[in-house]
Amino acid sequence: MADIFSKIAAGEIPSYKCAENDEFYAFLDINPLVKGHTLVIPRREVDYFFDMDDDELARYQQFAKSVAVAIKKAYPCRKVAQIVLGLEVAHAHIHLIPMQSEADADFRREKLKLTEDEFKEVAANISKAFNS
Question: What is the rounded CA–CA span in Å between residue 115 and residue 72?
């Protein structure tokens, strides 16, 4: 049975898509720390980031890098944090978070409450930057 992230990547569950290719999928975190907080997942179901073979892991990082470049272009910031964190979903995922300070990547802080239109705008901005 497919996990929630696999269902999102397959289009069975709606998401705010930012970027994709045959192997990987990037979409907005629905509980963002800041505007532009994006999750990057492999389409293949793999629970643990380091269970991926070296070639797949390298391609995953290259895809995540291209998404991070798009995020920084769409939401100018000092850096885009890459955080591999999370036990609640048994599917490898990278958090990409635009940062002005390290506080922007503190998962204990209150999450943003964005409207559907705001989510759509953020995803469109990142997608446009990714594809340009």
Answer: 22
